[in-house]
């Protein structure tokens, strides 16, 4: 538990909430219910052992902060995740209700460990130690085979490392899920393209060989689709999507819509990771009915803009 003022709010709340959820407790010394709620919050923080951070804001001394969050009565608690308020509650709540509130938003201990493993693996990849990253993810997945995030990161790393048979085996359980998650279908499409390059003779062609066939017959969809797979293998994913669009515009149903499915897979693979924010904040009110004044303006990064542009292209081709 830490006391927060306007001076340290940016560091202790906004920045900190990008690493761990932060629960703001707006209180005042004269408030009776605040005095009963405070010890309960501190007890829960200790029991949750780092799953969230508790900070206290004296509403009398920090009226600017209280006003920014639209605080109308105290005690009021607001949960911050990723720099934004996502939910809250008013009044002195019993311990069980506080834990139920937190459990709606906080990752479990297993999820935290999986996230830590994935983060460490990513750092190992960036440092050039993909082998250690693979082993870390493999061990983590063996301990928690039901964690889809771990499985996704592990399969993605295997595919990127060219370990296609291992990737196919690790991906198989996810492909058996009903409904099937798009991110795993996307990995399957990427894997299929790379297996085509490895096992089909055309996987060794030069791009010019495909272009000659396409110039001779613009409806040579086999050549266009094979070319798109070669482009995927070369890491030229936007060029692959352009080739797939040419097929889709001419024959939407060709090969059981394989071009569209591959295109959608590439969009998924190119999409930036979604921020872990709660949808309750979208309407400006929390699930508990608290009006939240502090809202961050959405940002559009270049990668998201690229994906949006190619989504529009697909939409136009399908209409």
List keywords for this structure.
319 residues; alpha/beta; Glutaredoxin; five-stranded mixed β-sheet; 14 helices; 5 strands; 8% strand; elongated
- Span between N and C termini? 56 Å
* Helix percentage: 55-70%
- What are the low-pLDDT stretches, counting only 5+ consecutive residues below 50? 276-297
CATH third-tier fold name of the domain at 2-106: Glutaredoxin
Record field, number of beta strands: 5
Strand content: 5-15%
Describe the structure.
This protein has helices at 9-15, 32-48, 63-68, 95-103, 109-126, 130-143, 148-160, 164-175, 182-199, 207-216, 221-233, 237-250, 254-270, 302-318, and strands at 2-3, 22-27, 53-58, 76-81, 84-90. By secondary structure, it is an alpha/beta fold. Among the domains are: 2-106, 3-Layer(aba) Sandwich (Glutaredoxin); 108-169, no CATH class. The longest helix has 18 residues, at 109-126. The chain has a five-stranded mixed beta sheet with strand order 1-3-2-4-5, with helices on both faces. The model is unreliable at 276-297 (pLDDT under 50). Helix content is 58%, strand content 8%.
Describe the structure in brief.
Helices cover 58% and strands 8% of the residues. It is an alpha/beta fold. Helix 7 (148-160) runs antiparallel to helix 8, helix 10 (207-216) runs antiparallel to helix 11 (221-233) and helix 12 runs antiparallel to helix 13.
């Amino acid at each position: 538990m830490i006391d927060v003022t306007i001076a340290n709010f940016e560091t202790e709340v906004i920045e900190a909430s990008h690493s761990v959820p932060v629960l703001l407790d707006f209180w005042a010394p004269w408030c009776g219910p605040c005095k009963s709620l405070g010890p309960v919050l501190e007890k829960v923080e200790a029991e949750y052992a780092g799953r969230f951070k508790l900070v206290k804001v004296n509403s009398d001394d920090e009226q600017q902060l209280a006003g920014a969050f639209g605080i109308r009565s105290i005690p009021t608690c607001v949960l911050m995740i990723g720099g934004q308020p996502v939910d809250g509650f008013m009044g002195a709540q019993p311990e069980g209700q506080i834990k139920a509130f937190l459990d709606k938003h906080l990752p479990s201990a297993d999820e935290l460990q999986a996230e830590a493993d994935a983060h460490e693996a990513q750092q190992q990849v960036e440092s050039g130690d993909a082998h250690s990253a693979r082993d870390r993810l493999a061990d983590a997945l063996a301990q928690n085979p039901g964690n889809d995030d771990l499985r996704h990161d592990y399969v993605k790393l295997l595919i990127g490392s060219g370990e296609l048979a291992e990737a196919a085996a690790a991906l198989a359980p996810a492909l058996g899920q009903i409904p099937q998650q798009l991110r795993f279908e996307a990995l399957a499409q990427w894997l299929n393209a790379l297996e085509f390059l490895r096992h089909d003779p055309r996987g060794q062609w030069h791009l010019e060989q495909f272009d000659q066939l396409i110039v001779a017959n613009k409806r040579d969809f086999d050549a266009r689709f094979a070319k798109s797979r070669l482009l995927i293998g070369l890491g030229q994913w936007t060029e692959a999507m352009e080739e797939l669009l040419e097929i889709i515009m001419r024959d939407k149903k060709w090969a059981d819509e394989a071009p569209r499915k591959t295109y959608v897979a590439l969009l998924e693979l190119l999409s930036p990771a979604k921020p872990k924010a709660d949808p309750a904040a979208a309407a400006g009110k929390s699930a508990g009915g608290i009006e939240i004044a502090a809202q961050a303006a959405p940002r559009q990064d270049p990668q998201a803009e690229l994906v949006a542009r190619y989504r529009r292209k697909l939409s136009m081709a399908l209409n």
